[in-house]
Fold this protein.
Amino acid sequence: MSGSRVLGLDPGSRRIGVALSDPLGMIAQPHGVIDRTREDALAVIRNLVADNDVSLIVVGLPISLSGEEGPSAAAARAFAAEVAEAVECGVELMDERFTSHTAERALLEGGVSRAERRRTRDKVAAAVMLQAFLDRSGRDSR
């Protein structure tokens, strides 16, 4: 992963949280939110890949606590397949259990207002998911 970034996407029905790693693929940071109701999400993602030297996209897969995949997971898999067709880099799925909860808790502990939490929750959840992926990938390569 050295020398190129990893893009994390946390897809929802209305918004997609976006996170981006540093060039070494070690640290994830919230990047933004794509509004699916107003923007061509695939065009925005293609531009993010091109503009940021992205070599891999990680899409969050919402799996239930019991390990079952429901309608949201099926939608995330379909979204990942669309992304894979639209870009010229790898696309992987990552279990995103607890990411939204972890993001919300971190924002609450940081004293972030309700309105600001609503605006930032999706991109922070994407960063939490991407960081878990980067941590796992870093251990796997050692």
